[in-house]
Amino acid sequence: MSREDCLHILEDLGFSKLEAGIYLFLLEESPVTGYRVAQALGKPVANTYKAIESLANKGAVLLDEGDSRLCRAVPPEELLGRIERRFQEQKLKITEALAELRSPGSDDRVYQLKTAAQVFERCRLMLEGCHNVALLDVFPEPLATILPDLERLLERQVTVALKVYAPTDLPDAHVFLNPSYQTTRARWPGQWVNLVVDGRECLLAFLTEDGRGVHQAIWSGSPYLSWVYHSAVASELILDGLTRDIQRGIPVEILQKRLVEFQKLKVLAAEGYELLKERFQFAAKPAIRSLQPKFKEKTR
Fold first, then answer.
1. What pTM did the predictor assign?
2. What is the greatest pairwise CA distance in the chain?
3. Which residue ranges form the domains of the chain, and what is each CATH number?
4. 30, 35, 85: which is closest to 62 by C-alpha?
5. Which end is more exposed in the chain, N or C (fewer Cβ atoms within 10 Å of the end residue's Cβ)?
6. Under 8 Å CB-to-CB from 201, ≥6 apart: which residues?
7. d(CA 154, CA 159)
8. Are 173 and 147 in contact (CB under 8 A)?
9. Please, are residues 58 and 50 in contact by the beta-carbon 8 Å criterion?
10. Degrees to nearest 5, angle at CA 120 with 115 and 123
Protein backbone atom coordinates (compact mmCIF):
# COMPACT_ATOMS: atom_id res chain seq x y z
CA MET A 1 0.00 0.00 0.00
CA SER A 2 1.37 3.40 -0.98
CA ARG A 3 1.85 6.39 1.28
CA GLU A 4 -0.99 8.15 -0.53
CA ASP A 5 -3.29 5.24 0.23
CA CYS A 6 -2.37 5.45 3.92
CA LEU A 7 -3.07 9.19 3.94
CA HIS A 8 -6.53 8.65 2.41
CA ILE A 9 -7.41 5.90 4.88
CA LEU A 10 -6.37 8.05 7.85
CA GLU A 11 -8.51 10.87 6.46
CA ASP A 12 -11.44 8.43 6.22
CA LEU A 13 -10.85 7.65 9.91
CA GLY A 14 -11.31 11.31 10.84
CA PHE A 15 -7.81 12.76 10.54
CA SER A 16 -7.30 16.03 8.69
CA LYS A 17 -4.91 15.92 5.75
CA LEU A 18 -2.23 17.68 7.84
CA GLU A 19 -2.78 15.37 10.82
CA ALA A 20 -2.45 12.30 8.60
CA GLY A 21 0.78 13.61 7.12
CA ILE A 22 2.20 14.39 10.55
CA TYR A 23 1.33 10.95 11.91
CA LEU A 24 2.99 9.16 9.00
CA PHE A 25 6.10 11.34 9.34
CA LEU A 26 6.32 10.63 13.08
CA LEU A 27 6.06 6.90 12.44
CA GLU A 28 9.23 7.17 10.37
CA GLU A 29 11.07 9.72 12.51
CA SER A 30 10.41 9.96 16.27
CA PRO A 31 10.83 11.62 18.63
CA VAL A 32 11.18 15.07 17.08
CA THR A 33 10.06 18.59 17.84
CA GLY A 34 7.02 20.17 16.29
CA TYR A 35 9.34 22.64 14.58
CA ARG A 36 11.17 19.77 12.88
CA VAL A 37 7.87 18.33 11.70
CA ALA A 38 6.81 21.67 10.22
CA GLN A 39 10.14 21.98 8.39
CA ALA A 40 9.96 18.44 7.01
CA LEU A 41 6.42 18.84 5.73
CA GLY A 42 6.79 22.44 4.60
CA LYS A 43 3.85 23.58 6.71
CA PRO A 44 3.40 26.70 8.89
CA VAL A 45 4.75 26.12 12.41
CA ALA A 46 1.59 27.36 14.12
CA ASN A 47 -0.66 25.07 12.08
CA THR A 48 1.66 22.14 12.68
CA TYR A 49 1.68 22.61 16.47
CA LYS A 50 -2.10 22.91 16.46
CA ALA A 51 -2.41 19.65 14.45
CA ILE A 52 0.03 17.87 16.80
CA GLU A 53 -2.05 18.95 19.78
CA SER A 54 -5.16 17.61 18.05
CA LEU A 55 -3.39 14.29 17.37
CA ALA A 56 -2.42 14.08 21.03
CA ASN A 57 -6.07 14.58 22.03
CA LYS A 58 -7.01 11.76 19.64
CA GLY A 59 -4.46 9.47 21.24
CA ALA A 60 -2.34 9.26 18.07
CA VAL A 61 0.70 11.16 19.39
CA LEU A 62 2.58 11.25 22.69
CA LEU A 63 4.10 14.55 23.86
CA ASP A 64 7.21 14.86 26.00
CA GLU A 65 6.50 16.91 29.13
CA GLY A 66 10.02 18.38 29.09
CA ASP A 67 11.09 21.72 27.69
CA SER A 68 11.82 20.26 24.25
CA ARG A 69 8.20 19.07 23.79
CA LEU A 70 9.31 16.15 21.66
CA CYS A 71 6.49 14.19 20.02
CA ARG A 72 6.26 10.53 19.12
CA ALA A 73 3.69 8.56 17.10
CA VAL A 74 1.64 6.00 19.00
CA PRO A 75 2.20 2.52 17.45
CA PRO A 76 -0.39 1.77 14.74
CA GLU A 77 -1.77 -1.32 16.47
CA GLU A 78 -2.45 0.70 19.63
CA LEU A 79 -4.01 3.57 17.69
CA LEU A 80 -6.20 1.35 15.50
CA GLY A 81 -7.27 -0.76 18.47
CA ARG A 82 -8.45 2.37 20.26
CA ILE A 83 -10.27 3.61 17.15
CA GLU A 84 -11.99 0.25 16.73
CA ARG A 85 -13.13 0.13 20.37
CA ARG A 86 -14.38 3.68 20.16
CA PHE A 87 -16.24 2.90 16.94
CA GLN A 88 -17.95 -0.13 18.50
CA GLU A 89 -19.03 1.94 21.50
CA GLN A 90 -20.43 4.68 19.27
CA LYS A 91 -22.06 2.12 16.97
CA LEU A 92 -23.95 0.60 19.90
CA LYS A 93 -25.15 4.00 21.09
CA ILE A 94 -26.25 5.23 17.67
CA THR A 95 -27.94 1.92 16.83
CA GLU A 96 -30.14 2.22 19.90
CA ALA A 97 -30.84 5.90 19.23
CA LEU A 98 -31.72 5.41 15.57
CA ALA A 99 -33.96 2.44 16.37
CA GLU A 100 -36.10 4.76 18.47
CA LEU A 101 -36.37 7.23 15.59
CA ARG A 102 -37.24 4.67 12.90
CA SER A 103 -40.70 5.28 11.47
CA PRO A 104 -43.18 2.39 11.83
CA GLY A 105 -45.02 0.77 8.96
CA SER A 106 -44.02 -0.77 5.67
CA ASP A 107 -42.55 0.99 2.67
CA ASP A 108 -43.70 -0.27 -0.73
CA ARG A 109 -41.42 1.98 -2.78
CA VAL A 110 -38.64 0.79 -5.06
CA TYR A 111 -35.22 2.35 -4.45
CA GLN A 112 -32.14 2.49 -6.67
CA LEU A 113 -28.73 1.46 -5.37
CA LYS A 114 -25.86 3.33 -7.00
CA THR A 115 -22.70 1.51 -5.89
CA ALA A 116 -21.53 -2.07 -5.55
CA ALA A 117 -20.74 -1.36 -1.89
CA GLN A 118 -24.40 -0.42 -1.34
CA VAL A 119 -25.53 -3.60 -3.07
CA PHE A 120 -23.40 -5.92 -0.96
CA GLU A 121 -24.12 -4.14 2.31
CA ARG A 122 -27.84 -4.38 1.60
CA CYS A 123 -27.39 -8.09 0.81
CA ARG A 124 -25.63 -8.62 4.13
CA LEU A 125 -28.35 -6.82 6.08
CA MET A 126 -31.08 -8.77 4.31
CA LEU A 127 -29.41 -12.10 5.04
CA GLU A 128 -28.75 -11.09 8.64
CA GLY A 129 -32.45 -10.31 9.11
CA CYS A 130 -33.71 -13.42 7.32
CA HIS A 131 -35.79 -15.84 9.44
CA ASN A 132 -37.50 -18.32 7.10
CA VAL A 133 -36.02 -18.58 3.63
CA ALA A 134 -33.52 -16.87 1.33
CA LEU A 135 -33.63 -17.43 -2.44
CA LEU A 136 -30.80 -16.25 -4.69
CA ASP A 137 -29.95 -16.08 -8.38
CA VAL A 138 -26.27 -15.16 -8.34
CA PHE A 139 -23.11 -15.17 -10.46
CA PRO A 140 -19.85 -16.62 -9.02
CA GLU A 141 -18.03 -13.40 -8.07
CA PRO A 142 -20.90 -11.81 -6.11
CA LEU A 143 -21.53 -15.20 -4.50
CA ALA A 144 -17.95 -15.31 -3.24
CA THR A 145 -18.46 -11.88 -1.64
CA ILE A 146 -21.58 -12.85 0.33
CA LEU A 147 -20.60 -16.48 0.97
CA PRO A 148 -19.65 -15.89 4.66
CA ASP A 149 -23.08 -14.34 5.24
CA LEU A 150 -24.81 -17.33 3.64
CA GLU A 151 -22.77 -19.72 5.79
CA ARG A 152 -23.83 -17.86 8.94
CA LEU A 153 -27.45 -18.01 7.76
CA LEU A 154 -27.18 -21.78 7.24
CA GLU A 155 -25.74 -22.16 10.73
CA ARG A 156 -29.06 -20.72 11.97
CA GLN A 157 -30.79 -23.51 10.02
CA VAL A 158 -32.61 -21.10 7.71
CA THR A 159 -33.65 -22.49 4.32
CA VAL A 160 -31.28 -21.25 1.60
CA ALA A 161 -31.70 -22.05 -2.10
CA LEU A 162 -29.70 -20.56 -4.91
CA LYS A 163 -29.31 -20.71 -8.66
CA VAL A 164 -25.61 -20.58 -9.54
CA TYR A 165 -23.51 -20.23 -12.68
CA ALA A 166 -20.51 -22.32 -11.73
CA PRO A 167 -20.19 -25.59 -9.84
CA THR A 168 -20.65 -24.62 -6.18
CA ASP A 169 -20.30 -26.55 -2.95
CA LEU A 170 -22.42 -25.09 -0.17
CA PRO A 171 -23.41 -27.81 2.31
CA ASP A 172 -26.94 -27.64 3.77
CA ALA A 173 -28.12 -25.28 1.00
CA HIS A 174 -30.26 -26.21 -2.00
CA VAL A 175 -27.91 -25.46 -4.90
CA PHE A 176 -29.21 -25.49 -8.48
CA LEU A 177 -26.61 -25.15 -11.23
CA ASN A 178 -27.96 -23.41 -14.33
CA PRO A 179 -27.85 -26.10 -17.05
CA SER A 180 -26.48 -23.56 -19.57
CA TYR A 181 -24.40 -21.55 -17.10
CA GLN A 182 -21.41 -21.09 -19.43
CA THR A 183 -23.57 -19.73 -22.24
CA THR A 184 -25.43 -17.44 -19.86
CA ARG A 185 -22.25 -15.97 -18.40
CA ALA A 186 -20.78 -15.41 -21.86
CA ARG A 187 -23.93 -13.67 -23.08
CA TRP A 188 -24.16 -11.07 -20.31
CA PRO A 189 -21.67 -8.14 -20.07
CA GLY A 190 -21.62 -8.18 -16.30
CA GLN A 191 -22.73 -10.25 -13.34
CA TRP A 192 -25.80 -10.22 -11.19
CA VAL A 193 -26.90 -10.90 -7.66
CA ASN A 194 -30.65 -11.22 -7.13
CA LEU A 195 -31.96 -11.95 -3.65
CA VAL A 196 -35.32 -12.25 -1.91
CA VAL A 197 -35.63 -13.02 1.81
CA ASP A 198 -38.73 -14.27 3.60
CA GLY A 199 -40.84 -13.09 0.66
CA ARG A 200 -40.58 -9.73 2.44
CA GLU A 201 -37.86 -7.72 0.69
CA CYS A 202 -35.99 -8.17 -2.56
CA LEU A 203 -32.89 -6.90 -4.30
CA LEU A 204 -31.99 -7.16 -7.99
CA ALA A 205 -28.55 -5.93 -9.02
CA PHE A 206 -26.70 -6.13 -12.33
CA LEU A 207 -23.06 -5.24 -11.75
CA THR A 208 -20.29 -4.42 -14.19
CA GLU A 209 -17.97 -7.18 -15.37
CA ASP A 210 -15.33 -6.37 -12.73
CA GLY A 211 -17.97 -6.22 -9.98
CA ARG A 212 -17.00 -2.68 -8.95
CA GLY A 213 -19.72 -0.73 -10.73
CA VAL A 214 -23.48 -0.97 -11.13
CA HIS A 215 -25.42 -1.14 -14.39
CA GLN A 216 -28.71 -1.17 -12.47
CA ALA A 217 -29.71 -2.15 -8.96
CA ILE A 218 -32.95 -1.81 -7.03
CA TRP A 219 -34.22 -2.78 -3.59
CA SER A 220 -37.76 -2.89 -2.28
CA GLY A 221 -39.40 -3.76 1.02
CA SER A 222 -42.80 -4.20 -0.64
CA PRO A 223 -44.30 -7.49 0.58
CA TYR A 224 -46.36 -7.82 -2.60
CA LEU A 225 -43.48 -7.29 -5.03
CA SER A 226 -41.20 -9.44 -2.89
CA TRP A 227 -43.69 -12.30 -2.60
CA VAL A 228 -44.31 -12.29 -6.35
CA TYR A 229 -40.56 -12.37 -6.96
CA HIS A 230 -40.11 -15.06 -4.30
CA SER A 231 -42.68 -17.22 -6.07
CA ALA A 232 -41.01 -16.65 -9.45
CA VAL A 233 -37.53 -17.54 -8.21
CA ALA A 234 -38.82 -20.59 -6.32
CA SER A 235 -40.60 -21.83 -9.47
CA GLU A 236 -37.46 -21.32 -11.57
CA LEU A 237 -35.35 -23.23 -9.04
CA ILE A 238 -37.89 -26.06 -9.02
CA LEU A 239 -37.81 -26.19 -12.82
CA ASP A 240 -34.01 -26.27 -12.86
CA GLY A 241 -33.98 -29.03 -10.27
CA LEU A 242 -36.47 -31.17 -12.18
CA THR A 243 -34.68 -30.55 -15.49
CA ARG A 244 -31.41 -31.67 -13.93
CA ASP A 245 -32.97 -34.81 -12.49
CA ILE A 246 -34.76 -35.72 -15.72
CA GLN A 247 -31.49 -35.34 -17.66
CA ARG A 248 -29.86 -37.69 -15.17
CA GLY A 249 -32.53 -40.27 -15.82
CA ILE A 250 -33.99 -40.19 -12.30
CA PRO A 251 -36.94 -42.60 -12.01
CA VAL A 252 -40.45 -41.14 -12.03
CA GLU A 253 -41.19 -42.24 -8.45
CA ILE A 254 -38.18 -40.29 -7.18
CA LEU A 255 -39.05 -37.28 -9.34
CA GLN A 256 -42.45 -37.13 -7.66
CA LYS A 257 -40.82 -37.14 -4.22
CA ARG A 258 -38.31 -34.50 -5.33
CA LEU A 259 -41.12 -32.27 -6.54
CA VAL A 260 -42.80 -32.46 -3.13
CA GLU A 261 -39.49 -31.47 -1.52
CA PHE A 262 -38.88 -28.65 -4.00
CA GLN A 263 -42.35 -27.21 -3.38
CA LYS A 264 -41.24 -26.46 0.18
CA LEU A 265 -39.14 -23.61 -1.22
CA LYS A 266 -42.34 -21.60 -1.63
CA VAL A 267 -42.70 -21.45 2.18
CA LEU A 268 -46.23 -20.16 2.66
CA ALA A 269 -45.38 -19.48 6.31
CA ALA A 270 -42.76 -16.87 5.32
CA GLU A 271 -43.12 -13.33 6.66
CA GLY A 272 -43.94 -11.76 3.31
CA TYR A 273 -47.04 -13.87 2.80
CA GLU A 274 -48.13 -13.33 6.41
CA LEU A 275 -47.74 -9.57 5.95
CA LEU A 276 -49.92 -9.73 2.84
CA LYS A 277 -52.60 -11.70 4.68
CA GLU A 278 -52.59 -9.17 7.50
CA ARG A 279 -52.65 -6.12 5.24
CA PHE A 280 -55.35 -7.31 2.84
CA GLN A 281 -57.23 -9.40 5.40
CA PHE A 282 -57.46 -12.61 3.47
CA ALA A 283 -56.90 -16.21 4.38
CA ALA A 284 -55.36 -18.93 2.28
CA LYS A 285 -58.08 -21.11 0.83
CA PRO A 286 -57.79 -24.87 1.14
CA ALA A 287 -56.80 -26.63 -2.04
CA ILE A 288 -59.80 -27.99 -3.94
CA ARG A 289 -57.77 -30.59 -5.73
CA SER A 290 -54.17 -31.62 -5.94
CA LEU A 291 -52.14 -29.66 -8.46
CA GLN A 292 -49.26 -32.10 -8.31
CA PRO A 293 -48.49 -33.22 -11.88
CA LYS A 294 -48.83 -36.87 -12.74
CA PHE A 295 -45.77 -38.38 -14.34
CA LYS A 296 -46.46 -41.23 -16.72
CA GLU A 297 -44.05 -43.69 -18.19
CA LYS A 298 -43.83 -43.48 -21.93
CA THR A 299 -45.52 -46.35 -23.74
CA ARG A 300 -44.78 -47.59 -27.17
1. 0.63
2. 105
3. 3-78 (1.10.10.10), 110-280 (3.30.870.10)
4. 30
5. C
6. 126, 219, 220, 221, 222, 226, 272
7. 7
8. no
9. no
10. 130
